[in-house]
From TrEMBL:
<dbReference type="Pfam" id="PF00196">
    <property type="entry name" value="GerE"/>
</dbReference>
<dbReference type="InterPro" id="IPR011006">
    <property type="entry name" value="CheY-like_superfamily"/>
</dbReference>
<dbReference type="InterPro" id="IPR016032">
    <property type="entry name" value="Sig_transdc_resp-reg_C-effctor"/>
</dbReference>
<dbReference type="GO" id="GO:0000160">
    <property type="term" value="P:phosphorelay signal transduction system"/>
</dbReference>
<feature type="modified residue" description="4-aspartylphosphate">
    <location>
        <position position="54"/>
    </location>
</feature>
<protein>
    <submittedName>
        <fullName>LuxR family two component transcriptional regulator</fullName>
    </submittedName>
</protein>
<dbReference type="Pfam" id="PF00072">
    <property type="entry name" value="Response_reg"/>
</dbReference>
<keyword id="KW-0805">Transcription regulation</keyword>
<keyword id="KW-0238">DNA-binding</keyword>
<dbReference type="InterPro" id="IPR058245">
    <property type="entry name" value="NreC/VraR/RcsB-like_REC"/>
</dbReference>
<feature type="domain" description="Response regulatory">
    <location>
        <begin position="3"/>
        <end position="119"/>
    </location>
</feature>
<dbReference type="GO" id="GO:0003677">
    <property type="term" value="F:DNA binding"/>
</dbReference>
<keyword id="KW-0597">Phosphoprotein</keyword>
<dbReference type="InterPro" id="IPR039420">
    <property type="entry name" value="WalR-like"/>
</dbReference>
<dbReference type="InterPro" id="IPR001789">
    <property type="entry name" value="Sig_transdc_resp-reg_receiver"/>
</dbReference>
<dbReference type="GO" id="GO:0006355">
    <property type="term" value="P:regulation of DNA-templated transcription"/>
</dbReference>
<feature type="domain" description="HTH luxR-type">
    <location>
        <begin position="147"/>
        <end position="212"/>
    </location>
</feature>
Length: 220
């Protein structure tokens, strides 16, 4: 059973998300928060698998709440709720330790899928949207190629694997692209994470963009 905390200052959003998630056989909403401080307190008490985190909340915003939750509870996965057209905090959310994000106007079925995917440790659901968003925020907000020194530690094959991760490929798709066994691809991904000092695909993608391995707007 996947336990979820919903943090959003809009009651109707929380109720809507809760109704959809509680209707699933493998997901249970264990708490709701209308502000960042309450979200941090609930997560500390309940240790949920996934937190749906709105960015703009009173008292403590979603980015700082995410940072505190991830720092104290590294096993908790945070899924940032955002609106692409106006939200300037996506990249900051990933830097704070979020495992991915969900557009607020996405179909509710996508919400269910996102919770399952993130809870399994597979960050960045909907990779085509992810590439566009991260590409935009990297281009306008990221520091100048801070990922270069980290990427320099990778072998040629590991660098290739990182590029494929940044393009949104799963382990199975990486194996197919490189014509290797899925277990071998999984091992490469694990070594990439270890060398980069990242915990999941979300953070690995940031490093790839910052190092210039993937050019925003130029991925297949």
């Amino acid at each position: 059973m996947i336990s979820v905390v919903i943090a959003d200052d809009q009651t109707m959003v929380r109720q809507s998300f809760r109704a959809v998630l509680d209707a699933q056989h493998d997901i249970r909403v264990v708490g709701e928060a209308a502000d960042g401080n309450t979200a941090v307190a609930l997560c500390t008490e309940l240790e949920p698998d996934v937190v749906l985190m709105d960015v703009r909340m009173p008292e403590l915003d979603g980015l700082e709440a995410t940072r505190r939750i991830v720092a104290g509870l590294p096993e908790v996965r945070v899924l940032i709720l955002t609106t692409f057209d106006i939200d300037e905090y996506v990249f900051g959310g990933l830097r704070a330790g979020a495992s991915g994000f969900l557009l607020k106007d996405s179909p509710l079925d996508d919400l269910v899928t996102a919770v399952r995917v993130v809870s399994a440790g597979n960050a960045l659901f909907a990779p085509t949207i992810t590439r566009r968003l991260i590409g935009e925020f990297t281009r306008t907000h990221a520091s100048a190629h801070t990922g270069h020194s980290l990427v320099a530690e990778l072998t040629a094959r590991e660098t290739e694997v990182l590029r494929l991760i940044a393009r949104g490929l799963s382990n199975v798709e990486i194996a197919e692209a490189l014509v290797i066994a899925e277990q071998t691809a999984k091992s490469h991904v694990s070594r990439v994470f270890t060398k980069l000092g990242v915990r999941d695909r979300a953070q690995a993608v940031m490093v790839a963009y910052e190092a210039g391995l993937v050019v925003p707007g130029n991925t297949p």
